[in-house]
Amino acid sequence: MKKIIRKVFPMLCLAAAFVLFPANVQAKNSETIKPGVYAGDIPLADMTLEEANAAVEEYIVSLETVEVTLLAADNQSVVVSAGELGVAWANPEVLEDALNHGTQGNIVQRYKALKDLENNNVVYPIELEFDITAIDRILTEQCKVFDREAIDYELIREDGEFTVIEGQIGYLLDVETSIDTVYGYLADEWNHEAATIQLDIAVSEPRGSVEELSMVKDVLGTYTTSYSTSGSNRSANVENGCRLIDGTLLYPGDEFSTYTAVAPFSEANGYYMAGSYLSGRVVDSLGGGICQVSTTLYNAVLLSELEVTERYNHSMIVNYVDPSADAAIAESSGKDFKFVNNLDYPIYIEGYTQGKKITFNIYGVETRPENRTVEYVSEILETTQPTAEVIYPDAGFNVGYVSISSAHTGYKARLWKIVKEDGVEVSREVVNSSTYKMTPRTAVVGVATADPNVYNEIMAAIATNDINHVRNIAALLTMPPAPEQTPEAAPAQ
């Protein structure tokens, strides 16, 4: 009997299905979406696939005008529409599932699906996508304009008094992560109404504070050199370089480059032609004399016990500081004088010129014991006296031109740092070792002339290798001839 029932039951279910779902009803239902089926908030009951697609597309178009507010730096806002962000329908294939709901599986499964729709709606999600390129463009062109750099607190010194200048917080839009933020929110969390999205902004605090900079008042090191023998051009270069460095504030860990501070060496930057060292010779160049600025600063830095990270001696000895106490900079050779503020507090560099003297004061917070002193002593290790004079004939100048460069003694030297406590030496260390070239007295002599006799005479003088003799001959060769004497008239008869 049980076997008979198991054979008959499927046949009864099949017959019931034909009763419940006549053929014409099944055909109609396969062409339209069942009642109770939604795409998002859109009811799709009795719609064909084409009708449902049009309904959803219309809804997507309506979203294009919805406003989205993007919060940029310092809470500045940029309002755009979802359409400008490239809103689009990401899963149109979902309508196939909506159309097929209640039409797949066996008769019992389909029956159950349709009965469930009578009590509970089935909602298929509408997924959105956006144009990453459009988001990137909006962020870059409209939101990033609100970025601003952080400005550190500054110090100025006028009439012997310090004034603190307030700093400014900096903001920087992170475009890459903000693209992800905007896209992720709109695609996954957006309720399709007006929305506000906070972009990813990096905030940078300014360095310093009124309290910290108000402590900068102690002179850590000061040094002065004289340029009293300099001409007007060289003097102007020294004063210009000093002015460009004056007022520099360095926070702990900052490195200072003298070359960067005073370059470029151009007329537009305030420089004139003046003598400078080049390959063992003195030549005129824009900015000649700037090394006296870097040298004066070097000695103030040493006395302040800041960390020197780059320093070069001159190719030849200078006369405004002791050997090994100089610091050369040069554009052609890449020489620079650099140092780091290795202290725990900011430092301020004051530079000024007065009475053909240049001075640098370095201000900070004095933490060294009062009984401690530091001094620097130059030691000459070797001296090389100049050799015979050297004369350079130059066809670029006419006979009569003689430019003489003084001889320079060669030196090997080193600089000692000596620390004392209560007047007693407690340490001594070598700061640097320097070598300066010996250069003989030289002269550049003009030999250009159209007169072969004059040429031969000046070349013969040059062959003597005596600069004074050459100078005398050049003067004679260019001396104007004496006026002819007119004979006296005979007395009248």
Helix-strand blueprint:
Layout: H1 2-20, H2 23-29, E1 37-39, E2 42-43, H3 49-63, E3 67-71, E4 77-81, E5 88-89, H4 94-100, H5 107-119, E6 122-124, E7 128-129, H6 132-143, E8 154-158, E9 161-165, E10 170-173, H7 175-188, E11 195-198, E12 201-204, H8 210-213, E13 218-226, H9 232-245, E14 248-250, E15 255-257, H10 258-262, E16 273-278, E17 281-286, H11 290-304, E18 307-310, E19 338-340, E20 347-354, E21 357-364, E22 372-384, E23 390-398, E24 402-405, E25 410-421, E26 424-436, E27 442-448, H12 452-463, H13 467-477
Parallel strand pairs: 1-6, 3-11, 23-27
Antiparallel strand pairs: 1-2, 3-4, 5-7, 8-9, 10-12, 13-21, 14-20, 15-19, 16-17, 18-19, 20-21, 22-25, 24-27, 25-26
Helix pairs in contact: 6-7, 9-11, 12-13
